[in-house]
Amino acid sequence: MLRAKVRELARDYRKANAPLTPERLAKGIGASFEIAPIPTDGMFDFDRGRILIAEGQSLKRQRFTLAHEVMHYLIRHDENLLSDMHEEYAGDEFEETLEALCNLGAAEMLLPSENVKATLAKKGLRAKLIPDLAETHQVSEEVAAIALTDQAAHVLAVIAGGRPLKVLFSSRSEFFPARPAKNAEVPKDHALALTLATGLPFQGEAPLPKHQRPFLLDAYAKGGRVYGIYRTKPN
Ligand SMILES: [Zn+2]
């Protein structure tokens, strides 16, 4: 329910403000934006109507962060949605849900779910779709991962990279029971690390990095990064 409402909010915003250039993204809520040296990806200075975006990230990533901050504003100003959220969640859980919903809305703004559905119908949910969708639709890989996990239940998408290999981002759909910590190191003998080292796609069982419980994993490496789609095992 909440997710459907957030998607609709984002879709209406996209339609009202298309094409969503960074300027138009911010202007739709009467805000401006600035690239600045801040410790988090993005911040909303509500008093000044100004969105701050962290410097040193790719333009696509900055656009995603901007859309995420715009979603904070839209949700904050939607009383019905807010009261629904407060009814269901409190404390840390509320904060975590809010962040996930802002990510979901940002993805819907930049990568319409109709497009994702069409791709999934043709190709099925595979890890390779994370970099492929990002490339085809000129969005960040985070956006692609969020959009893909939004279309399926019981899945988790992971993007890992860097040296030592770490989890850079993860997005889980409803009902997937766990998630890796951000920046969790991927052990050298983990299927994700081996996929990256060999360049060979992997399909089989593997736990999340630093976890025990095995899931089904589809992994794919490209350009120094490795992408994974985890699913719960059928009982
Ligand atoms: Zn946020």
TrEMBL record:
The IrrE N-terminal-like domain sits at 45-148
Q: Which InterPro entries match?
A: IrrE_HExxH (IPR010359), Rad_response_metalloprotease (IPR052345)
* Pfam family, any one: Peptidase_M78
Query: PANTHER family this protein is in?
Result: ANTITOXIN HIGA1, BLL0069 PROTEIN
Q: What is this protein called?
A: IrrE N-terminal-like domain-containing protein
